[in-house]
Amino acid sequence: MTAEDRKSVRMTTRQVKQREYWTPDYWRDYWERENPYRTYKLQRDRHLAVQLLRPLDGNRILEVGCGYGRISQALLSSASIRLVGVDFSEPMLKECKKMVNGWFVACLSDAAHLPFRNGSFDAVLCNGVLMHVEDQKLAMIELCRVLRPGGRLVLSSNNLLSPFAVPVILWIRLKSRVRQVFKPPWFYYGHLAKLGIKVRCMVGDTLLAMGVTIPGVGVSMIPHILFPALRVLDRWVDRPPLNYLAYENWFLGVKDNQETEAKP
């Protein structure tokens, strides 16, 4: 077996394990269990998605990595939009279709190979997905390609500058079934600029109120009794330069009216 063949086998094995991990039951339990930190982040994610995308009636919006629909319904409730949800997990898409109420079409695909024509959407959302894909640059090319000129792109990903980054990275290395990488904010600023996306703002999501649990136990490392105070502090520090330390960074960009040649 050649080195290229061994690399292909490793990639295929990792993809299979990641698909097994990517189930509605797992992620619903993750987000909706009785943990005030995760509830807070779930509510904040929904708020940020609507606040940054600013959906308008009639907009055609693409949500890449819609999962079981934890944010999809918030978008559909904000305006009379046409929402297309993409995910590489068929069970996720089936569950999302059950949860949402409104104009919704599910599409089985992945972020790096979107089956849509150039400029098909008025807005594109990609929340909490890029850190799990093999090639983030290729995925960003696709996100920008399907966005119309003047359209809004909102994406988020894990932040390497977060004080929680190193503990999570060390724990992830023990879990062969999932890929999760951390990048600094300038990685996204730089590549989006090359793709003709002008970043208008970066918002920090949870700098302090982070629901990190003890591996193998599921108990929060930060006591729940501290949550009310941390929530207040978390919103207060969401401003430059402290937002550069957030666990997850959200970027709002607008596509130039002139097409930019995309290169991997």
Describe the structure.
The protein is of the alpha/beta class and 264 residues long. Helices cover 38% and strands 19% of the residues. It is built from nine helices and seven strands; from the N terminus they run H-H-H-E-H-E-H-E-E-H-E-H-H-E-H-E. The chain has a seven-stranded mixed beta sheet with strand order 3-2-1-4-5-7-6, sandwiched between helices. Strand 2 (82-87), helix 5 and strand 3 (104-108) form a beta-alpha-beta unit. It starts with a helix and ends in a 9-residue tail after the last strand. The model is unreliable at 3-17 and 260-264 (pLDDT under 50).
Low-confidence stretches: 3-17, 260-264
Computed over alpha carbons, the radius of gyration is 18 Å
Average pLDDT, rounded to a whole number, is 86
- For the termini, the CA-CA separation is 29 Å
N-to-C SSE string, H for helix and E for strand: HHHEHEHEEHEHHEHE
Structural class: alpha/beta
How would you sum up the major sheet?
7 strands, mixed
